[in-house]
């Protein structure tokens, strides 16, 4: 679930962007994975590379978050193109996807994450979004009974919310950062959103969040010059939990999900400076510690990266992202191992959500020019069109 999420920034890995990292700090990885597509590679690699899109025309719509409620109910969020993009809220009714119209969706903004709760969904992002990212303020929308309402957020308002999760109508978390003020975690108590204190050594921005109860939640502290860190909520406070590190690599986690106190996943990207490559990274929580789990890296020019992960049980989880060769990247956990699963198109996938039935949805964007929605029916991924509502 894109909880990216900077995971909420749709990313495309490019050889040119990666090459620039050879003499840069690990923080430059974020710039690399958010770079626009590069020109097509040499003819020797063309057979395995998806067609590239131009960069002159922006996407009419990009999708960054998705949450599945049932086979007939799912939601996705994103934004339109332009210097003053509008937020996009789309709904699946069991037969088709269509965008939702509401006065709350008419002001400039981007929606970056969405999460279900009994009776509705939360959508978060940044309002007042202008070209270059100026004038951002936290944005939280609540959707119930088909009505979209903006919900006040506590001050300071400047910044962006990049992840959201909920376990009930009275327990939800939204995460991101405060402009010039560091990481931010907000909690919904059923009446209002309030800031949740973080340890004094928390840094960067909170890129993702997942909760299984009012006393058990995980959050990703996405530090710009070091490995991402994971924080755990025990019902009273947030505390740091150690994660494995590999010498010579820097890990940037984009998404986190949990199904129980003994089963959680975090997925992201590992940058290897010596080879100027990017690789997938997946961590698993077994109730005692986080361990790195082998994850596929399909053959590409410079590597693969994951930005989101969702699990429905101990033996069913999906992680999504993209790679330098272009094809959409999806990986599945069957209870024993992760394996790469072919998916149609050449999208930079930004989020995924899986139901207990095994049905899953993944969303993203193709070259920042059009939205992408994929549905897993139990045997294969299939593209689903998005109808623009009136």
Keywords:
mainly beta, Neuraminidase, single chain, 3% helix, globular, five-stranded mixed β-sheet, disordered N terminus, 390 residues
Describe this entry's structure for a reader.
The structure is a single chain. The chain is mainly β and 390 residues long. It has one domain: Kelch-type beta propeller (Neuraminidase, 6 Propeller). It is 3% helix and 50% strand. It has two helices and 29 strands. The protein has helices spanning 15-19, 28-33, and strands at 61-70, 73-80, 87-92, 97-99, 109-117, 120-127, 137-144, 147-150, 159-168, 171-178, 182-188, 193-195, 205-213, 216-222, 229-233, 238-241, 250-260, 263-272, 277-285, 290-293, 304-313, 316-323, 329-333, 338-341, 348-354, 360-366, 370-376, 381-383, 386-387. The protein has a five-stranded mixed beta sheet with strand order 1-2-3-4-29, with no helix packed on it.
């Amino acid at each position: 679930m894109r909880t990216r999420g900077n995971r909420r920034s749709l990313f495309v890995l490019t050889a040119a962007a990666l090459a620039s990292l050879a003499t840069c700090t690990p923080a430059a990885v974020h710039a690399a994975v958010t770079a626009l597509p590069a020109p097509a590679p040499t003819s020797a690699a063309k057979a395995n590379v998806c067609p590239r899109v131009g960069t002159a025309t922006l996407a009419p719509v990009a999708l960054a978050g998705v949450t599945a409620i049932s086979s007939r109910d799912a939601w996705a969020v994103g934004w339109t193109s332009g210097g003053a993009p509008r937020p996009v809220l789309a709904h699946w009714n069991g037969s088709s996807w269509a965008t939702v119209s509401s006065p709350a969706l008419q002001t400039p903004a981007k929606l970056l994450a969405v999460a279900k709760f009994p009776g509705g969904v939360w959508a978060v992002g940044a309002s007042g979004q202008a070209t270059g990212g100026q004038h951002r303020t936290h944005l939280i929308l609540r959707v119930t009974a088909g009505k979209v309402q903006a919900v006040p957020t506590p001050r300071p308002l400047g910044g962006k919310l990049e992840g959201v999760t909920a376990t009930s109508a009275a327990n939800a978390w939204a995460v991101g950062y405060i402009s010039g003020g560091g990481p931010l975690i907000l909690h919904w108590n059923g009446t209002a959103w309030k800031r949740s204190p973080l340890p004094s050594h928390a840094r960067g921005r909170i890129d993702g969040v997942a909760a299984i109860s009012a006393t058990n939640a995980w959050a990703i502290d996405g530090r710009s010059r070091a490995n991402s860190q994971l924080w755990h909520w025990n019902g009273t406070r947030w505390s740091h939990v150690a994660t494995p590190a590999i010498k010579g690599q820097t890990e940037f986690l984009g998404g986190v999900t949990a199904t129980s106190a003994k089963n959680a996943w975090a997925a992201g990207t590992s940058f290897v400076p010596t080879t100027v490559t990017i690789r997938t990274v997946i961590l698993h929580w077994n109730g005692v510690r986080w361990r790195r789990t082998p994850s596929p890296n399909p053959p590409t020019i410079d590597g693969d990266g994951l930005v989101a992960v969702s699990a429905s049980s101990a033996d069913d989880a999906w992680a999504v992202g993209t790679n330098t060769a272009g094809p959409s990247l999806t990986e599945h956990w069957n209870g024993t191992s992760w394996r790469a699963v072919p998916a149609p198109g050449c999208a930079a996938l930004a989020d995924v959500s899986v139901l207990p039935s095994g049905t899953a949805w993944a969303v993203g964007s193709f070259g920042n020019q059009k939205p992408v929605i994929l549905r897993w029916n139990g045997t294969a991924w299939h593209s689903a069109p998005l109808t623009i509502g009136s």
